Description:
- By secondary structure, this protein is of the alpha+beta class.
- Helices cover about 25% and strands about 35% of the residues.
- The protein is built from eight helices and 15 strands.
- It has helices at about 15-25, 60-65, 75-80, 95-105, 150-155, 180-190, 230-235, 250-260; strands at about 1-10, 30-35, 40-45, 50-55, 85-95, 115-120, 125-135, 140-145, 170-175, 200, 205-215, 215-225, 240-250, 270, 275-280.
- The strands form three sheets. The protein has an eight-stranded mixed sheet with strand order 2-3-4-1-5-8-7-6.
- The model has no long low-confidence stretch (mean pLDDT about 90).
Amino acid sequence: xxxxxxxxxxxxxxxQRAIEQYCNMGFNMRDGGVHPGKGTQNAVAFTxxxxxxxxxxxxxxxxxxxxxxPGNSHAGLAQFIxxxxxxxxxxxxxxxxxxxxAAMRSRGVDVSDALDRGRRTPAGLDLKWKAAVLGPKNxxxxxxxxxxxxxxxxxxxxxxxxxxxNGVFKIERAYVITRDxxxxxxxxxxxxxxxQPKMERGMVIMSDMVVFQLGPTGLGIAQPYAPGPGADALExxxxxxxQVLFRTRxxxxxxxxxxxxxxxxxxxxxxxxxxxxxxxxxxx
Length: 284
């Protein structure tokens, strides 16, 4: 069963510069270590139960050799970064990945086996998980993870990292922009093994959207209906992941922190729930 959005992966050409930029946004980013044999390295910012991952290539030759392996989520990473990088994957957590893979295959979904993965943190902590990626017949910007290292142990890699100056404490929702939300949502429903939700209107991103609720987090498949953030993302980069919405304990604190770091003023909007939202921090 898929239980939540586990994390979002943002791919960058320069990890240290990206860490600095995300710290300017008020996230306590920490060096996450290297992926042995994969040629990549990352930094993470934990919230209560999910996290942000910044991913970069540290050894191009090693990365290119490993990218040819089956079930590798980093295939095409160098090209993605060369084209500008940014939000690449929304990773969904499973409580039994082998069972979920079997269930997806029974629905005709092209998906890899649940393969063992891991990395070592700078403090020497070995983290273990299983991962599965979709195949060429279902090229969606999501993949799946089952953690073998308990959450409390994983949090030890970033002591004190959950106290973010911007007040963020959880991922609320992540969006994928598309030209046909209804048709694409049918594919996501098949992959996830859940009914297709009804369409709703997103007032902040100016897009009609179908939202799959995965535990406390939502995966939104969005189609612009008017000029705005969704339309801008679709024109600039084409279909794919384009935004992550976070819950914060204080929008005022978040805005003040970013202003103090010299970032441009952040606009405000009103969601279809009536709640206020601040945004947007653009890809630049």
